[in-house]
Amino acid sequence: MNLAALREYTHLVKRVRSAVSEDREARLGLHEITAAGKIYEFMQVVLGSGAPRRVLLSAGIHGDELAGVEALCEWLESHAYMKFLYRWDITMLPCLNPWGYEHGTRENGDGRDLNREFNSSRPPQEVLFVQSVLQQRFDLSLELHGDEDSAGYYLYETVQPGADIGHRVLEQIRTVMPVNLDTTIDAKSADGGVIARPLEPGTHSWWPMARYGFAQGIPCSLTLEAGQSPLQRQVQAHLQAIEAALGLCS
What we know:
Number of helices: 7
Structural class: alpha/beta
Helix content: 25-40%
Strand content: 15-25%
Shape: globular
C-alpha cells in the first residue's frame, strides 16, 4: 500500500487503469464529472462477460473512508476476482466520491452526503451516474464502508425475506477482525453484527444506495462496515467479506 499516494485521485485512476490493462477481458469506463469546479474521471470497471449472476461492488461514497477503496484496488490488482468469473459478472465502482476522497471528507464538493441522496428530486451527478448503473440487473450489491466509532465489523442487510446472508458473511470475518456484537449499533437495533433494513421505505425522508438498489430489483444488498482498526486490517476484513459473499451467494 503506497500511503504517500492515498488521497491522490489521479494516482488511484492510474492504479485501476494499470490493473485492467493486464486482463484483456476487463474493461474500464471513464466518465467525466465535475465537483467543486474540478473535473474527475469517474471509474466503472467490468470484469467477465456472460456469467449467470451479476454483482456490483462499490466503495468511497463517503470520501473519508479509505479502506473500501483500497480493498477494491487490491482485489483488482491481485486478480483475486478471476476465480469467480465462471459464476459472476462483476461491475466495480471503485470510488464514488472523488472530491471527498481527495479532501478526506464524508461529503462531496457541494457538501452533500451522497448516501442520503438516492431519492432526491435533484440528485448530485455522482448519484445520477450510480443510478444509471443500477438500471442494469444485479443479483448482489456489496458496498464497502468504514465506521471508526465501531469496535468491530458489522453490516447492513437489505434482502428478500428468508435470506440470511449477513450472519454467514460475518462468521468468515472473525479471523481478521472482531464482529461488533452490540445490540445497538449506529443508533439502530442489531443482531450479531447485522442491522436489517426494512424493505419498505416508510416515512424515511432519504434513501441510501442500498434502498434504491432494492427498489430497482436487487434482491440482496450488503453495506459492509469495517470497524476501528489499522487501515490494512480494515482492508483485509473487506477482502474477506467480498470473498465470503460471492462464495455464499453463488
